[in-house]
Structures are given as C-alpha cells and as structure tokens.
Amino acid sequence: MSNDALPTAVDVLVVGAGFAGAIAARDSAAAGHSVLVLEGRDRISGRTWYRKFEGKEQDVEVGGTWVAPDRQPYVKAEAERYGIDLFQSPEPQAFGWGIDGELSREPFPIPAEEWPALERAIARMNQDADRIQLFEQPLGQEGLEDLDIPFTEYVDALGVAPKTRDFILAWPTFYFGAYPDKLSALHVISWVTAFGSCTGWFTLLTDKFVGGTTGFVSKILEDSGVDVRLNTPVATIEDADGQARITTRSGEEIVAKSVIVTAPINALNTIDFSPELPNAYRSMSEETQAGESVKVWALVPALEKDFYGVGLHTTFKWIASEYTTEDGTYLCAFASAEKDLDPTDRDAVEAAVQEFLPESTVLAIDSHDWNKDEFSQGTWMAYRPGQIMKYSAGLQVPHGRIHFANSDLASGWAGWIDGAIESGLRAARQSNDLLGQGA
After folding, report:
1. Of the candidates 145, 162, 195, which is a domain's last residue?
2. Is the peptide bond before 90 cis (omega within 30 degrees of 0)?
3. Average model confidence (pLDDT) for the chain?
4. The domain that contains 162 carries what CATH number?
C-alpha cells in the first residue's frame, strides 16, 4: 500500500467464511451495514469441507458432517430457510464393538447381566443433564462445578462393570475427538441434555446436507450479497480511537466500525490483537481445547453389508460405511489423535480398518489434517476439565469493537454446525447493537 492510499472502510469486517462467519455477515448486511468477509483459506466453509475424494468422483465431507435437525433448532431453521434437503447415512447391518479387550459382533454389546447397572448409569447421566440450561446461557452455570471434572472420573464413580464402562467411555471419545480423561464431564453431559436423553448417544446420527456443507455455506453467502475475499489472512486487529483497524498479512489496511472474528479458539494465535485479548480468550487459546480427531476416508472393496463399528481401545474409535459405488465401499473413520494414526499412511490405515474388518484391503485413502491446518489447529470443541466453569461465559463477551463467533463458543451444541450458527447469530446481534448506538 502506498503512503498516500486510504484504507478500505466498511461498517463490519468478518474474519472467516465458515457457517458462523456466513451467518454473521448475512445478518449484519440485513441490518443495512456494509460488510466485508476476509477468509485466510482458498475456499469457504471453515471446518466443514465438501469435496471429491482424491482421484475419484465421489463427494465426501472431510470436516464436520452430521446434523440432528429434530434436536438442533438453528440448523433446522436455516435448512428450511434455504430449502436444504437432507439425506441419510446407510443403516448398518453388521457391527463391531471394540470394548473390554475384545471385538463383539453383536448389534448391542452389553451382556444382559450388566443391563441393570447400565440403566442406573443412564438414569444418573440423564438426571445430571436435566440440571443444565442448554441454549439459555453459557455452559459454566452456577451449581455445575461438580460436573466440570474428567469424564473418566465421572464414569468411574458410576461403579459399572468393565464392558459397560468401556461402552460409556467410547461414545464421547469419538463424538468429541479426544480421550475421555481430557474431556470435561460437563461438556459431555451437555450433549446428553441436547440429545434429550443419554440414549440419544446410541441413536446413530445419519442426517447430512444434500449438496454438502460447502454448498450450504455458499447459499448463505450468496444470500447476504457481501464481498468475500479468499486467500486473505488477517495479521492484526487494533481497536483504538473509535474504530478498528485491520491489517492483512499482505499489508492491506481496512478500517471498520465493528469486527466479527470467527477463528477457532485454538487458532486465535494467528492474529495479533490490540488491546490484548481478555483472559478467557487468551487462556483458552493458550491451553487449547482438546479436540484433535483424525478423520479418514478409506476406499475398500465393496462390502456385502453396511458396517458400523465403535471402539475405545481400537485405533479407530468410529468406523462406518457411507457410500458403496462401482469403486467399492467408502468407509468414514475417526481416530482420537495423530499420535494414534498417520492419516496419510495407507498401510497404517489398512491395519486400523482390519481391526474391525479383517478381510478388507484399503484401495485408497483421503483426509484433511485439521490439527496441522493453520486456521484450525484442532477439530471441533472439546472442553478440558475445568475450562467450562473458568472460561465459557467470557467467551461470549465482546472485546470492545471485536466480537467472536464459532461453534466453540456456543451455549447449546458447542462443537457442532448448530453451535456455529447460534454463535454467528449472537455476534451479529452484538455488532448490530453496537452500530445501532451510533458507534
């Protein structure tokens, strides 16, 4: 930029073009404000990404995928608004449960003699879930301190047998993409609240967007009519002298009356803020949230029956058939951390698949490394023990002219697309309120 050039000026600058950013941009523009969206990547849709399996014609979601519109009000409303239809993952006909040191092929792996203890454990979790006021306020609510502990500690207090213990621990291990000792029981149980019952964990999520997540985000951005600039990462945001001054890494300066930052918690360190961020944002970014799932797509020769597997001590914590075409069967699978699996190593992926499907060979693999992605630095939100009570309320508070939105910050479905939409709506309201005051 030359010394005499004037910086671009807008009412609202949105950093990030995922679901949260698209919603925030749309609602800011609908309020009559000029809006500019800057996206560091060469594409839209943030931690969701619908694209071709490498070298194939099959479309796959390499990031966030499933929704539960009957339980997720923001997803339901936005899907209806844009006429987004849903389709379902196949219903499994074969199963594998890697718990208590063995692989069970039963549709339900808990022996009948353990059912009474499992029922009591479910009742206890449902009772604790009823204490949480989901959506109404941040998760760190008064009186919930006893739940903000490691999930392993919570489950051990239930006094169940090893097989039932592993079964209970396995679900959040793949749902959150983190090992249960690193997970806050309060965050886990908040999803029980969201599902309506602990048994909701065991009801397979199947709903996906026709046209994919990226197509959905594209529709929202098209509706907003705002300018979106790709390959434009932000370097600094300074809030001073009655305005926010944003500098991109290429040196371009933009002046805005309000800024909405949708960078994930773990990636806030990619931007220098002045004044520095408040403690909740700064500490969470330094400590990081625990989600570090490794999502892998593996193409295998066509399976006779659609398969579904869950394991606690297996390499893949979740593995399932998603599509069967003339290429074969496309399996979607999750490991909990990169230390468990190199998603680019086909032999390692094949060995992990064969823990569940011993006769299968892996023909091709595909993945995106969200943990090494500069603009993600992890996967979806998984609060560590103690973080909710210390930080969750502060993560929804604006920092002067700077507002924050992403699925990590939701009061409801933190870590889900529904949570991203919730936070984008909230940030736009906060920003519009600021601008409505003549700021």
Report:
1. 195
2. no
3. 96
4. 3.90.660.10
Q: In the prediction, which pLDDT does 439 show?
A: 66
Q: Which residues of 383-421 are buried (b: 16+ CB within 10 A; e: fewer)?
A: bbbebbbbbbbbbbebbbbbbbbbbbbbbbbbbbbbbbb
**DSSP conformation class of 122:** H
52: helix, strand or coil: strand
Q: Is 143 exposed, middle or buried (0-12, 13-18, 19+ CB in 10 A)?
A: exposed
Task: Give the residue numbers spanning the domain of 121.
Answer: 115-195
Give the three-class secondary structure for 175: helix
Is a pLDDT exceeding 90 seen at residue 211?
yes
What's the rounded Cα separation, in Å, for the pair 325 and 302? Answer: 8
Retrieve residue 407's tokens.
């699925």
Q: At what angle do helices 19-30 and 212-224 cross, to 10 degrees?
A: 20
CA atoms within 13 A on the CB side of 80: 8
Give the Cα-Cα-Cα angle 131, 135, 136 (nearest 5 degrees).
75
